[in-house]
Amino acid sequence: MSLDTTPPWDDVQNYVDGEWRRPSNDGQDVVDPATGETLARVGFSSGDDVDAAVDAGREAFESWQSTPVEERIQPLFALKELLEAHQDELAEVLVREHGKTFPEAKGELRRGIENVEVACGVPSMMQAGHLPNAAPGIDETAVRKPLGVFAAITPFNFPGMIPLWFLPYAVATGNAFVLKPSEQDPVVAQRLFELIDEAGFPDGVVQLVHGSVDTVNALLDHDGIEGASFVGSTPVAEHVYERAAASGKRVQAQGGAKNHIVVTETADLDFAAKKTVSSACACGGERCLANDVVVVEEGVYEEFVDRVLEEARAQTVGYGLDDDTDIGALITPDHEARVRDLIATGVDEGADLLLDGRDVDVEGYEGGNFLGPTVFGDVDPEMTIAREEIFGPVMGLMAVEDVDEAIEVLNRSDFGNAASLFTASGADAKKVRHEADVGNLGVNAGTAAPMAFFHFGGRKDSFFGDLHAQGEDMIHFYTDKTVYIERWPDA
Ligand code: NAD
């Protein structure tokens, strides 16, 4: 099969019990952020649609939970091959509905595929332990068991990767799964499920339901769902955490972010400037790992600002499928307006606007949501642009006396998703590793994105729950442990 990459796409549907079904309620248009063209319309699932998906999952779970694990991972091996074979087509669809560049879209799909690969190791990862003679005449064995149907609610910014933080682990451990992707760019999920349909999962093991707030709440309240994973903005993460817990579910909710880069006097400044700009501007800055507050030791502040400006001016803003584009379009006109407002707030609050991306002009794409790289100097930690998530290609630099002050600035943030340090000093690196209150920390790495076999961290207002996405944490989230205590007097 080949995936349809040519819009208009009129086939955005739910996938329930191995069948495609239209969501019951009307929804919203899916719009190309670079052209303003309507690509598709996505319907929103009703409570009955959610019931149908959960019922199908519960029925499938009855036999899937006891299907040998070696059989359960076979569709994942098939899915990996299908994803590899269709990576370019998926990436093209992703660019059309999200606005990021083609290499960025391929990079995100690679990260998704890595999670499918890691979940194929579930036969080893799911083992829990056995101890002969744990007590006189007694052997004890711990086992991990799947629980039932799990849901994941995912954001717009990585529509090809984030569903795969969850789905492969849920099904490999023997659960059934329901995905509710972002309504802003749902077609990638649609294409992903076309491949899932081909990969050979039994009907009902994986379902896709499209929708918005009401669909999410129907999932969170549903008695037939054991647990929910959420990735998105902090206010919604908090809502999901509370609402899912209120009906007794397991829940992990990853929220928004405000991340810092620390640059010390010993850093390779050229390398650090390159990584700073790409960290803040890649995917249009619409990344929970975007480091957009840049805290620089004062001895190299002026020199570093110059290098950042040089690097930022070299970025090309444009259409995501054009080869020379570095920064694509923002997701919606409303979001673009919000980022523009935050830039204006930065100016009003006294930051020094060194590079203004608001005048960007992308020839041939006048209807697109574009913003150029924007650089502020002399930012104060109390300014709005230093505290609030911007989610656009905007960065703010500030000078500090030393690494201690830099750590103090970054730990003052309400968020704790990620940070990066550029230094040649092992002592500085050790200090930041010990003292920075963040879940992902890069040292001489601009974007602290862990591989799939490590969990994806996050602290403070960036995370609600205890077990994170990816890797071993997912095995713990998707299973519960039982201990068998056995005595055989005649043995
Ligand atoms: P969002 O919170 O608006 O939406 C996320 C999901 O929640 C969507 O599926 C949406 O349909 C649903 N939703 C939206 N409002 C809701 C409500 N009131 N009640 C119930 N459900 C609701 O987030 P977004 O704009 O799609 O994504 C961007 C945000 O996600 C940013 O804040 C970013 O930092 C965050 N994010 C975090 C991580 C992480 O790992 N911490 C990763 C990616 C994105």
Summarize the structure in words.
Helix 3 runs antiparallel to helix 5 and helix 15 runs parallel beside helix 16. The strands form 6 sheets. Strands 14-15-16-13-12-18-19 form a 7-stranded mixed beta sheet, with helices on both faces. The chain has a 6-stranded mixed beta sheet with strand order 9-8-7-10-11-21, sandwiched between helices. Strands 5-6-22 form a 3-stranded antiparallel beta sheet. The protein has 2 domains: 264 residues, Aldehyde Dehydrogenase, Chain A, domain 1 (3-Layer(aba) Sandwich), CATH 3.40.605.10; 185 residues, Aldehyde Dehydrogenase, Chain A, domain 2 (3-Layer(aba) Sandwich). The longest helix is centred in the first third of the chain and has 18 residues. The protein is of the alpha/beta class and 491 residues long. It has 17 helices and 22 strands. The site of nicotinamide-adenine-dinucleotide has 27 residues, from helix 9 and helix 10. Nicotinamide-adenine-dinucleotide binds next to helix 9 and helix 10.
